Amino acid sequence: xxxxxxxxxxxxxxxxxxxxxxxxxxxxxxxxxxxxxxxxxxxxxxxxxxxxxxxxxxxxxxxxxxxxxxxxxxxxxxxxxxxxxxxxxxxxxxxxxxxxxxxxxxxxxxxxxxxxxxxxxxxxxxxxxxxxxxxxxxxxxxxxxxxxxxxxxxxxx
Length: 157
Hints:
This protein has helices spanning 6-21, 57-65, 67-70, 83-87, 89-106, 127-139, 144-154, and strands spanning 44-51, 54-55, 75-81, 112-117. The chain is an alpha/beta fold. It has one domain (6-154): Flavodoxin domain (Rossmann fold).
């Protein structure tokens, strides 16, 4: 969930493909287009990006409107950010603080929160790093944080 445009859409559909490969039914929805209520699901993953130190209003409205249902099922929240926002320690801490403040303010207690970097700029990496990054994308090697989210939500060890 979130706004399904650009990299956010790709991340959401990547998570969808992995969960479907694991035999789970998955719905990917855009928060700005009347998504279904969380009460229809066993678990939920909501993703959003920060714009001027705030999350998108559609995501805020969805979570606020469905807060009771969200707190009754396993959930995860991810922040989608450009790679530069997640590489500098100070910016990473600031993004984490914004996420924690946001969730505390609205009262949602997901089992896990994480930050996912955006676009991979292969041409800017050295030869070895470029090979590793391409292997991750092609082979669907799931990053450890994302794997942990999916394991928590699906009850797998």
